[in-house]
């Protein structure tokens, strides 16, 4: 084997012959040949102590810089994953909200039909109290079920007109505070968001005497 330091036996039976140690490169090759290590890293230091110290300091700084860069990459990866997780959760919530709103919109005509049936009088004047009671119970059951999902009716009749909540189908002439005088179709909110505005008639509430006097004292 190349680079061996083992003594060789003399065939004549004399003392073994000493073999000079191999060069360092040969020792490394021998180690690799024998499969004792997969990889050998060798750092050669300068002979001068000051140069050796400077070399080691530079190596340390390089290692610290590499470690800092690795830490920065890790932090960026963590931040990107956190942003991805938040985006995924937000998209999922928005998808669920859209699906819920779509179902609510499809059920609103059912509520409208029940509302219309409850205010409609029997054409022949016959007593239909039992049927009305059944429809009223069905309507209340449906409303309570949808309320658990966040649906709530919009306050309309007698309330101040709010264009974000009410859609004016009729508008009276006048001055003063705009109020809802009649509701033609009920509006609903879903978790605070308008699913459908109330269809209403709008009139004006006369100003109080004190407000009228203030208006006369301070004309526009």
Account of the 3D structure:
By secondary structure, the chain is α+β, with helices and mostly antiparallel strands. Helix content is 50%, strand content 15%. The protein has a 3-stranded antiparallel beta sheet. A 3-stranded mixed beta sheet has the order 2-6-3, with no helix packed on it. Helix 2 packs antiparallel against helix 3. It is elongated and about 110 Å long. The N and C termini lie far apart (113 Å).
Oligomer designation: single chain
Major sheet details: 3 strands, antiparallel
N-to-C terminal Cα separation, in Å?
Answer: 113 Å
Helical amount:
40-55%
Structural class: alpha+beta
Q: What is the molecular shape?
A: elongated
- In spatial order, strands of the major sheet run 1-4-5
SSE order in H/E notation? HHHEEEEEEH
Tally of strands: 6
| Count of helical regions | 4
Radius of gyration: 45 Å
Q: Give average pLDDT, whole number.
A: 78
- Percent range for β-strand residues: 15-25%
Low-confidence stretches: 1-9, 18-25, 27-40
Annotation keywords:
220 residues; alpha+beta; 3-stranded antiparallel sheet; 3-stranded mixed sheet; 6 strands; elongated; disordered N terminus
Detail the topology: elements first, then pairings:
Elements: H1 24-34, H2 49-119, H3 129-147, E1 151-153, E2 166-171, E3 177-185, E4 188-190, E5 193-196, E6 198-205, H4 209-217
Parallel strand pairs: 2-6
Antiparallel strand pairs: 1-4, 3-6, 4-5
Helix pairs in contact: 2-3
Could you write a compact summary of the structure shown?
With 220 residues, the protein is α+β, with helices and mostly antiparallel strands. The protein contains four helices and six strands, in the order αααββββββα.
């Amino acid at each position: 084997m190349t680079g061996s330091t083992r003594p060789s036996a003399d065939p004549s039976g004399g003392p073994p012959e000493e073999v000079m140690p191999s060069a360092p490169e040969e020792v490394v090759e021998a180690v690799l040949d024998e499969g004792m290590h997969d990889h050998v890293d060798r750092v050669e230091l300068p002979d001068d102590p000051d140069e050796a110290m400077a070399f080691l300091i530079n190596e340390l700084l390089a290692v610290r810089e590499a470690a800092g860069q690795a830490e920065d990459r890790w932090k960026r990866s963590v931040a990107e994953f956190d942003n991805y997780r938040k985006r995924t959760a937000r998209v999922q919530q928005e998808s669920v909200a859209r699906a819920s709103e779509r179902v609510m919109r499809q059920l609103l005509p059912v509520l409208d039909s029940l509302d219309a049936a409850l205010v409609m009088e029997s054409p022949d004047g016959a007593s239909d109290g039992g049927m009305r009671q059944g429809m009223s119970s069905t309507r209340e059951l449906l409303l309570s079920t949808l309320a658990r999902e966040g649906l709530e009716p919009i306050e309309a009749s007698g309330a101040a007109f709010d264009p974000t909540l009410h859609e004016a189908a009729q508008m009276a002439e006048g001055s003063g505070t705009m109020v809802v005088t009649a509701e033609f179709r009920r509006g609903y909110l879903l978790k605070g968001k308008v699913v459908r505005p109330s269809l209403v008639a709008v009139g004006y509430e006369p100003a109080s005497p004190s407000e009228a006097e203030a208006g006369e004292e301070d004309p526009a």
